[in-house]
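Consortium newsletter contribution from the modelling node. Members have asked for a concrete example of what our holo predictions look like. Here is one, prepared for the protoporphyrin IX containing FE complex that several groups have been discussing at recent meetings.
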Amino acid sequence: MAAEMYWKYPKEKIVGFYRAFRPTLVVRDPEIVKRILTTDFIHFYSRGINVHKKIIEPMLRNLFFADGDVWRLLRQRMTPAFTSGKLKADSLNDENSAFRQLGAKVFTPTAKKLVIGMLKLIFPELFKYAKTQGEVEADIVPLVKEILKQRNYQPSGRNDIIDLLLECKAKGTIVGESIQHFKPDETPEIVKLELDDFLAKHGNKMSYDAIKEMTYLECAFKEGMRMFPSLGFLIRQCVSKYTIPEIEVTIDPGVQILIPIQALQNDPQYFANPEQFRPERFLPEEFDSHNKYVYLPFGLGPRACIGEQLGLMQSLAGLAAVLCCCSVEPGPTTIRNPKIDPRSGIVQSIKGGLPLLFRKREIKN
Ligand code: HEM
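And here is the predicted structure:
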């Protein structure tokens, strides 16, 4: 919907519409994007995705979905868990397939999730107890309880996410100033060559420091995230009356704001030949810093992705592990311009998946 509105009104800075009785604003202009995400964030610190304010299903009581003071305090408490020091300690080779499978389940779009989500949006009171992530909840609650018991409710020294959360809990009740009361095509050859060098130098061992050296791989990942970001749009909700100075339009509290990053990142006025996969765009000497408020795969400002560094490192480690031993090519059924699954929630999935052809390759040393 956000992308559709973006392309439909190319001359406008903002576009308003109703989504299940909710007034919604798509912001097309990078300067206004900057105001909402950073400069005037104090008017837009909520996402407002959980429609019912009191009855919230357990899987949606987390930092991404939290609003107001709960968000602020959680964010404050969790930020230290994502520093680069913690990331270096995190084992990139750690296996935990149960969690990985559950992770995939959370983001897999299904008709059931879509219908429940719609019903909750249209009739919040009537469907307040319906759960969009009921199946994941049934799997994850016993799993986490079991792990907590095994660790005797104390951090185990493994430095994984459960340890990090146990450390947060040990710090006790969170207190702080209230925010609510403030005023105001094929694997490019160059990637393979870089990987071969990397292998020779680091003896096939992945580490935080080694991955940081792979500049071209990082550019290739960033270019992928430009063409198909995980979140098609960012969400904020206006919490106090705000007038956009450039156009003198006043936004009332409750209006939901969508920042259409899938569209912005594929607009030729910001990225020449956007349909071309060209990682060089992200080399420091080529990247246009004016695009800072247009290229937003991890969001921006105080509510940007808390796991950006971890997500980047994990993705690069995963890509490096695959590309070290395989070359990846489009297969006979690969679609050149994949379509977004219309059942997708916040995270966009590709309709029918993306079949790829993996060929084992010789490593040049
Ligand atoms: C490639 C991997 C990832 C991508 C592309 C990604 C992308 C995003 C985006 C676009 C947002 C919304 C930002 C905004 O609204 O401005 C977000 C928020 C968030 N992400 Fe990530 N993310 C990734 C990995 C991770 C990881 C590894 C974690 C945690 C382990 C994480 C935890 C979160 C949380 C908790 C939020 C909500 C933050 C808040 O509202 O304060 N993400 N992510």
